[in-house]
Write a structure and sequence with these properties.
Strand content: 15-25%
Helix content: 40-55%
Oligomer: single chain
Length: 179
């Protein structure tokens, strides 16, 4: 007897995006090239998602055959999109990991301006959690360890040398606490 359900896949996440409280895109990453292949189609989808969720008091929505989990904070809306048959708990684990990781990087100041000022860290967090639609990590502590290493490993030497030359011992101490 053949099953009609699709084969299980590691490619569980179709998209991640963050919108501001007006529904404007701040960050997005689409992992399925067949799903909304153009920027215009992506923005139309994001507008529909925002219109369906911005006043709702839920954590999950279904739209255009997609399962969408979401969370808001101050003036930001965080979305994780999966297929209709995707496990909502897995998508929610990704959403919580994304939110908790960004909350830590943004020093609990999870709002639009802070997010835009720290886009390099935001992209690193996206890339540590999802790769090509495959969930790599759902533990924020693991994500933060990898991101902090990547954020600090390259530019840190210049800052450490500058701090040493200028005698700024406070900055040296602050960076060592992050590692």
């Amino acid at each position: 007897m053949e099953s009609t359900s699709p084969d299980p896949s590691l490619y569980t996440v179709k998209a991640l995006f963050i919108l501001d409280n007006d529904g404007n895109r701040l960050v997005s990453k689409y992992y399925d090239p067949k799903l909304y292949p153009s920027m215009k189609e992506q923005k139309i989808f994001e507008t529909k998602v925002f219109n369906k969720t911005y006043k709702a008091d839920n954590e999950i929505a279904f739209l255009e055959g997609m399962t969408i989990v979401y969370k808001s904070s101050i003036d930001l809306f965080f979305y994780v999109v999966g297929s209709a048959q995707e496990n909502e708990l897995m998508l929610m684990a990704v959403l919580n990991c994304l939110f908790d990781s960004l909350s830590h990087i943004l020093r609990k100041n999870v709002e639009r301006r802070s997010l835009l000022d720290n886009m390099d860290g935001v992209f690193l967090v996206f890339d540590e959690i999802i790769d090509g639609g495959v969930i790599l990590e759902s533990d924020p502590q693991q994500v933060l360890q990898k991101v902090n290493y990547r954020l600090l490993s390259e530019p840190a030497y210049g800052f450490v040398l500058f701090d040493y030359i200028t005698g700024n011992l406070e900055a040296q101490t602050d960076r060592s606490q992050l590692l």
